[in-house]
Design a protein that fits this description.
heterodimer; A: alpha/beta; Transcription Regulator spoIIAA; 6-stranded mixed beta sheet; 4 helices; globular; B: alpha+beta; Heat Shock Protein 90; 34% helix; binds adenosine-5'-diphosphate; binds magnesium ion
Chain lengths: 120, 155
């Protein structure tokens, strides 16, 4: 499933069925985009009740605190269906906001950026 | 950090200004931060400084839309002033519901949203991405948020 609304686009892969729901976001996450994005994701979470939902943020160029609300809200949803939310590849800016909100202590964040691999 | 702050003046002379008024529609959030960023580009800010400004503006504008004019559509007044010494002064004003207790509202994670979709991190983001944030509010009169940001630029 692919949807675009102005400066944000959303792709949801349902191939994982009840195992994994993959959500790929691109562009800008603000309150305007968070409103429709969350409706789309929640619909799929309720349909598949997956064990894991992965939100790929590698294509996000802008995010404000509405993104924290979006992620925390999906985390709560996933807990309600007995699953786990994973956030993948947030950039440095997004990490800064995560850390302000203490989000990294609540939601699992996967980062394996090219930079890191290069340095290791 | 503190020492530096004392030496800086937040009341230097303004030499260029932009004013913007927008109805409180969420579709305007992107427009507002992009317009402010475009105006500030003449200071040749670093990508990080520009991202700080965009994010702080987005927070203040979103608050006008979701809180100040919650059940209605009102006007958001934005003024951006470029002042001597690299100071950018951004005022975001609404004539909405106002904030009862500003100090409480500025507390990290504090939100009056009951749907569980707001994080209560808006003011905290503004504070950490700007050098100073001033909030004036009157119940049923509205709120004025002023963001102060020193732009050093790409030297
Ligand atoms: N312009 C405003 N008008 C009225 N109330 C506001 C305004 N801005 C902020 N608030 C109040 O302050 C609280 C905290 O704001 P913020 O830190 O941005 O968190 P959030 O927007 O996630 O609730 C809001 O929940 C709201 O009650
Ligand atoms: Mg807010």
């Amino acid at each position: 499933m692919q949807k675009t609304n102005r400066n944000c686009s959303l792709f949801i892969s349902e191939d994982g069925g009840s195992e994994e729901l993959l959500v790929v976001l691109k562009g800008e996450i603000d309150h305007h985009s968070a409103v429709w994005v969350r409706t789309e994701i929640d619909e799929k979470i309720m349909r598949y009740r997956p064990s894991r939902t992965v939100m790929d943020l590698s294509g996000i160029s802008f995010m404000d605190s509405s993104g924290i609300g979006l992620i925390m809200g999906r985390h709560t949803r996933m807990q309600a269906v007995g699953g786990l939310l994973v956030v993948r590849e947030p950039n440095e800016r997004i990490m800064k906001i995560f850390e302000l909100a203490g989000l990294t202590r609540i939601v699992s964040v996967e980062r394996e950026s090219r930079k890191r691999r290069g340095r290791a | 950090m503190k020492e530096k702050e004392q030496k800086r003046s937040y009341s230097t002379e303004c030499y260029n200004e932009m004013k913007l008024r927008l109805p409180s529609l969420s579709v305007n959030e992107g427009m507002a931060r992009a317009a402010v960023a475009a105006f500030c580009a003449q200071l040749d800010p670093t990508p990080s400084e520009l991202a700080d400004i965009k994010c702080a503006v987005s927070e203040a504008v979103t608050n006008c839309i979701v809180h100040a004019y919650r059940d209605t559509v009102g006007i958001i007044y934005i003024s951006v002033k470029l002042c001597r010494g690299g100071l950018v002064r951004i005022e975001i004003k609404d004539k909405g519901c106002g904030i009862e207790d500003v100090e409480l509202a500025r507390t990290p994670l504090y939100t009056t949203d009951s749907a569980g979709e707001r994080s209560g991190m808006g003011f905290t983001v503004m504070e950490s991405f700007c050098d100073k944030v001033r909030v004036f509010s009157g119940c049923k009169k509205g709120t004025t948020v002023t963001l102060f940001k020193f732009v050093k630029g790409k030297e």
